[in-house]
Amino acid sequence: MTSRTRMMKTTLLSALFIVYVQAICDKELVRPLEWTGGSFEWPNLSTKALYKSSGRFIGKNNIATRAQIYKDDVIVAFPRYKPGIPVTLGKVCLKQRNCEAVISPFPDWSSQEEGNSAAFQSVVDLFIDNNEILWILDVGVVNTLNSPVRKSPPRVIAFNLRANKQARILDLSGLVAQASRLQYLAVEYAPDGRPFVYISDAATRSLLVFDVAGNRGYRVVLPKAVVGCGRRDVLYIALVQKGCGNNFIIFTYLSSPRIFSIRTDYLRAGSASGKIQDIGVKPNRAVILGTDLGSAIFFRYEGQSEIYRWDTNTPFLPANFVLVYKSDNCFLATQAVADLRRERMRVLESNFPDYVQDTVGCGATQKLSLMTGCL
Ligand SMILES: *[C@@H]1O[C@H](CO)[C@@H](O)[C@H](O)[C@H]1NC(C)=O
Questions:
Q1: One-character DSSP codes across 204-250
Q2: Dihedrals φ, ψ of 50, to 5°?
Q3: Helical H runs in the chain?
Q4: Distance CA 359, CA 353 (A)
Q5: Is 44 in the pocket of ligand 1 (CB under 6 A)?
Q6: Quick check: CB of 357 below 6 Å from ligand 1?
Q7: What pLDDT score was predicted for residue 27?
Q8: Is the pTM of this model over 0.85?
Q9: What residues contact residue 44 under an 8 Å CB cut-off, 6+ apart?
Q10: Where does the secretion signal sit in this chain (predicted)?
Q11: Cα end-to-end span (Å), the chain
Q12: 159 partner at 20 to 30 Å CA-CA among 76, 172, 230, 291?
């Protein structure tokens, strides 16, 4: 064997090795993450035992409902619907080697302390923007399903992921009413580069708009025509980003028969009157799950496991709804989330209805799956 062929062989072998390693990594990234209850990474066993004995950790009360993906990590919200939720904002790596995924507090344990208003109290939604800022909606109220207790003002915390540090706290106290129920948030940058936060308030039939640079917010009240007939209804919002031209927010109440949109430049100008477009009739009650960060919206019908993709450039009609995913038995999606690094969509799903009815046994099963299944 000449040294040249030997060298070629070595090169070929190392190339094959790289492909092999890449395949292992990809396999890890394709496998769903799955866990039950609050599968947290504790500092040590005595801390866990202490949390358990004092009622600060009740495994079956923990459920992740919202997520965002940053590089190879998934940042997850565990709203404090019930007592015993030690971590309201967690992080789990997509590259898990164990069957049961392990969630660490994000950014640390001290940020999770219930009752300490300097820590997160109940995180209900998350949004990562193009500048690697994580926006965290903390409603400040815990035990929301049983006996709600306010622990801090409602607020949005901006966390700079690249610098790994908290950047801003937006106090929403002045924008809410006693009855407010803040549910979803989305963030965009105006053409002049100023960030704006949009938050749905189901109880006051409004969208809160926060001009971060100007440190001021206002409430845009929606017309009566947008409401449905449900008690304690849910107000979904989805930010559609057009790349060029105006972005808009698609919104609908769970129980409303119709779906609406408003251009975000109108929201930033502080007025909705005459600017809301009725874009169609929903075939059924629909749960808006998220977007692809572009013009597509993902949704499912209430209680149904099929997820549809609707390109908002087309009319809101069943002929334009593409079936893209179906959850396994007992699972329902609570979010469809973009995985930018791999240009894929993932689905956060759980047996949420069982959780609400307290019939989860050892704990809610939670799963983050690739939308398009295995390779
Ligand atoms: C367990 O971790 C907690 C929190 O970090 C610490 O205060 C405590 O000393 C640790 N206990 C043991 C036995 O290592």
A1: TTEEEEEETTTTEEEEEEPPGGG--S-TT--EEEEEE--SSS--EEE
A2: -65, -45
A3: 3-30, 45-53, 264-268, 352-356
A4: 9
A5: yes
A6: no
A7: 61
A8: yes
A9: none
A10: 1-23
A11: 39
A12: 291
What percent of the chain is predicted at pLDDT more than 70?
91
Tokens of 203: 């109880």
- Closest C-alpha among 240, 244, 247, 321 to residue 280: 321
Residues in the chain: 375
Which residue has 């940053």 as its token pair?
70
**Pocket flag, ligand 1, residue 43 (CB < 6 Å):** yes
Take residue 13 and report the two structure tokens written for it. Answer: 């072998």
**Residues ≥6 apart with Cβ < 8 Å to 293:** 241, 338, 340
Q: What is the b/e burial string over 200-215, where b = at least 16 CB atoms within 10 angstroms of the residue's CB?
A: bbbbbbbbbbbbbeee
Task: Tell me the C-alpha to C-alpha distance, in Å, between residue 369 and each of 294, 309, 334.
Answer: 20, 16, 12
Q: Return the best residue to mutate from 40, 41, 42, 44 for the ligand 1 pocket (most ligand atoms within 8 A of CB).
A: 44
Q: For ligand 1, say whether the CB of 3 is within 6 Å of any of its atoms.
A: no
Amino acid, res. 34: E
Q: Would residue 250 be called left, alpha or beta, if left means φ above 0 and alpha means ψ between -120 and 50 degrees?
A: beta
CB 172 within 8 A of CB 199: yes
Cα-based angle 226, 204, 201 (whole degrees, multiple of 5): 85
As given in the structure block, the two tokens for residue 59 are 């495994």
Mutate to test the pocket of ligand 1, among 40, 47, 52, 113 (most ligand atoms within 8 A of CB): 47
Q: Give me the amino acid identity at 24.
A: I
Contact 47 CB / ligand 1 (< 6 Å): yes
Token pair of 149, please? 């207790």
Task: Give the number of C-alpha atoms closer than 13 A to the C-alpha of residue 122, restricted to the C-beta side.
Answer: 28
Residue type, 243: G
